[in-house]
Amino acid sequence: MGLDEDALEYHRTDPPGKIEISTTKPTNTQRDLSLAYSPGVAAPCLEIDEDETDAYQYTAKGNLVGVVSNGSAVLGLGDIGAQASKPVMEGKGVLFKRFADIDVFDIELDDSDPDKLVEAIKMMEPTFGGINLEDIKAPGCFTVEERLREEIDIPVFHDDQHGTAIISGAALLNAADIAGKSLEELEVVFSGAGASAIATARFYVSLGVRKENITMCDSSGIITEDRAADGDVNEYKQQFARDVPEGGLADAMAGADVFVGLSIGGIVSQEMIQSMASDPIVFAMANPDPEIGYEEAKAARDDTVIMATGRSDYPNQVNNVLGFPFIFRGALDVRATEINEEMKVACAEALAELARQDVPDAVVKAYGDDPIQYGPDYIIPKPVDPRVLFRVAPAIAEAAMESGAARTEIDLEAYEEELEARLGKSREMMRVVLNKAKSDPKTVALAEGENEKMIRAAYQIQEQGIALPVLIGDEDEIKQTSANLGLDFDPTVADPSVGDYEEYADRLHELRARKGITRSEAGELVERDSNYFGSVMVEQGDADALLTGLSHHYPSALRPPLQVVGTDDDVDYAAGVYMLTFKNRVIFVADATVNQDPNEEVLAEVTKQTGKLARRFNIEPRAALLSYSNFGSVDNEGTRKPRKAARMLQDDPEVDFTVDGEMQADTAVVEDILEGTYGFSELEEPANVLVFPNLESGNIGYKLLQRLGGADAIGPMLVGMDKPVHVLQRGDEVKDIVNLAGVAVVDAQQE
């Protein structure tokens, strides 16, 4: 099937459409229903009657946006009417929810009279926290937005005007920086004079472009003062009329620094690009066909053409989804009365700054694994970059507070953490650990320091103040790679080939001489194997923790630290633990990486160490030792091991958390089974530490929970070591390295 057929099938699959209403509170019992509706609902109604602002406390108003359209100017489709525009408005709702966790009612109004639209929307003000106007044709859209901003007390934002303005404005900030040009000196030409073009031109002036340097062209040519005097252009176009000779788009583009296309495809030639100033900036944003093709514009000149389009299949897509969800998120969370110019500028500046930072691996993978780095082909962030939420929304909230648009003040540092939590429980949990790490950073040695991911992780670790990273490897290569990546940092490097590390070789020989390693072999291992070098470095106290394993099989990466650092004094066995985060639950799974066939003593030790780890995440452990048997229902050698381990732990005065077993996995995690059938269990609530009977079941279990249960996995985290060591998995992303560095620092703080 083609795209159209696929889209039709996508939309009509039961249930039809793309959005639904779901409940956010329990509705399982008669009491639940009496609280949700009659008679309990009277209480919040009366509170709101006393104080209307309580609607934000007792209803969904504070997270609800109305997407309102009459379908008179749908992108690429034109005036298709209210009913036909509904799929687009539902789609807008999907984007609000997906990117900023904002709920939406789509409202299609069957009228083209701006006055009637204003009156209809005004009557809906009590329902919504904000209004997103969509696909309303010019010049009526200007009237509707301007009047609503004056007459209602919630944010109103016409995305067709301001979305493109803000996102292309962010691109302009970076394009000018790369081209080495000053905003106030830029000569800017617009092709198109509709709502989006006019709003974009206005916004560029807010960013610092001189109004007198903007030349706007409509279908009749350059908008001049003579045309304005003759009544040839409407009042909105007149503000950009220039005292220049009349002419066409080609005349306007000669010598221009910037071309902004918001018109129709194919109207710009290579000759017109060639006529522009040096290193021209070309934003050809007509959809689906730009004013000039990407390859065509790039090939027109020998110097740098910084090109952006509205298409996702070329670099620098000007995509409004980078703006509206996050603008409303910030505005809603401070209960803003409007979305003003200061907030729009803050959005553009935050996006521009984000594009200059290192790009997460997940984003790179989403776009084909090709390197993504600040430069002519990357001047605005990618829409799937999760950092946009907690960079843009706080910038909007801060601008709203500083400009007086906010009804409520918020703590911006705490707010960023709340936004991260919206992206998943794993981010919320890691934030706990990373904040602890930042309170007292430690030195973390990074083996495999020449690896690009390790270098990028070191940059982020240092930039965020999580730890003091030391990269182990060839210093020249590491620093060259760092420079090639455009990272603004001077990495700390331990280079085994040039430094005086004879004492490391002596120590390794001392530890392993009776295991068959000669002094010369110890010297070679220290010089050539960063795992041994890093292990000795930590064992000697020159670093507080070690991360390794990025390019090695797990067992081979684990072997050097086990041989050199070893387990804690009162621990005989290390173990690998994954933290699995679900929407409303966190579970620690052990052992998933180290001990193949543990006996009861090992199971007990693993449980104790995993309980300690849970507390580092501020989770009070409740441990279940798992089997296919429930409390003796099957009696054999395999079921006795977890049963004995549970008893050992229950009798151990040093174990101050709840432990029980052996039990089946569903018994451990389902409250009704635990309290009903097995009310005698020591566990009063479902377990959050699951100890599997062997490595095989632990590894299988965590992967099933991750893949089929939709859990995010953090780890494996190595517990039981004498000093903090964590072994990464091959293919881990930079964020995984950063997260484990945070865990390692908190481990070191406990030492």
From TrEMBL:
The keyword Metal-binding applies. Keywords: Metal-binding, Multifunctional enzyme, Oxidoreductase. Residues 161-401 form the Malic enzyme NAD-binding domain. Its cofactor is Mn(2+); Mg(2+). Residues 16-149 form the Malic enzyme N-terminal domain. It comes from the Archaea. InterPro entries: Aminoacid_DH-like_N_sf, Malate_Decarboxylase, Malic_N_dom, Malic_N_dom_sf, Malic_NAD-bd, Malic_NAD-bd_bact_type, ME_PTA, NAD(P)-bd_dom_sf. One of its GO terms (molecular function) is metal ion binding. In the C-terminal section; belongs to the phosphate acetyltransferase and butyryltransferase family. This is NADP-dependent malic enzyme.
